[in-house]
Amino acid sequence: MATATAPASFFKELNRVPGDIYLKIALVSAFSLALLANKEQFITGSHVFKAAFLACIATVVYRIWFHPLSCFRGPRFAAAPDWYCVYRCAVGDRNLDFRRLHDEYGSIARYGLHRIAINTNTGLRDVYAVRANCQKSQYFGVFCHFFKMPMSMTTIDRKAHASNRRIDAKVLTSSRVHALEAAVLKNVRKFCDYMIDGPQDEWSAARNMSA
Known about the structure:
By secondary structure, the chain is mostly helical. Helices cover 55% and strands 6% of the residues. The protein has eleven helices and three strands, in the order βααααααββααααα. The protein has a three-stranded antiparallel sheet. A hairpin with a 2-residue loop joins strand 2 and strand 3.
């Protein structure tokens, strides 16, 4: 079934956030001090449960209000357990949800603990340019299982990526890419004509996209 497409979003994921590490160190230190101060009374079921509960509350509060990405707006519950993206992928409406997030929260929306979605005309350059102050997430390594070979898009190491990029730059020049625009648009329009078989405001017939 043909579905509406969301505007392009470019994603930035943080591999390591120092604040999370500091929080864990603080919680472990507090637990250790409490254990040493009152060892006999502390090791009981109720005290352990209370300590675990307070640790969970402190973690949630930190992730929502004190995390380095807390300055970006987004669903509050998406920032705490970091299962929001997994849920949307399971439901199958992740692309439409990104559009809703950008409509509600603006061009930059936080959709996970260490995840933000950027929907601007400069987002691609700001995140993926050679001198961009960003590090690709380990998530990109998943694509290697589908492509069966290393490529520029899935290369996480910056030095290795720079070597691949120099080769790509010789082939994918601006003039050559622009020269292919007419052929690409021709096929895109042909695909759209095939998919649309009724009024624009109604669902089209189901299509087997894997065939």
